[in-house]
Amino acid sequence: MMTISYEIGKKLYLNITNKCPCSCTFCIRQNGDGAYGSDSLWLEHQPTAEEVIENLKGRDLDSYEEIIFCGYGEPTNEFDILLSACDYIKSVSKTPTRLNTNGLADKLNPEKGGCAGLLSGRIDTVSISLNSPYKDGYMAVTRPIYDDAFEAMLEFAKSCKSKVPNVMMTVVDVIPKEDIETAKALCEQIGVALRVRAYES
Ligand code: SF4
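YS: structure for the whole thing
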């Protein structure tokens, strides 16, 4: 079966694609095929926007604290499906939405002319995985297909600031303390919040 949406506590998580331009060393794709006790998140085929919306229709969207695009792949790798799902959610519910992303939307969708603008009014929080405040560290951990991924991710964070109510970058708490301090300084410089997440194996 396909797990397009799954619950963790009072939050609903959406898994709209397996695709991703990164190959993070810590990715749950590389640590077994289930996450948090849910069913396998590996989608046996790429769902269409209609399939995602059909799945959402089976949920009481108002009953959740937050609806989060996350999952096994990078949601912005299927940007039009992401937008359609957001539009459906906003048409039926006031529950806030969050996009968990690697921040490479504009590399993946150059023809959109700036993805942040399209997220405006559709996504309430964008949470971007910074992973490391240094390009070398970032490249080693995320192993993206783009040489300029680090710069592109930071640019995307900046571009979201005026379009999306809440923008944050995240690091996991396993990186050195000094790196967390440097990440804080980098986020301050960009003007977004830093969230230090607990490592989930
Ligand atoms: S960006 Fe996310 S989905 Fe892609 S490899 Fe990294 S952790 Fe996995």
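YS: worth flagging: Residues 5-197 form a domain with the TIM Barrel fold (CATH 3.20.20.70).
IM: good catch. Also The CA atoms of residues 31 and 120 lie 34 Å apart.
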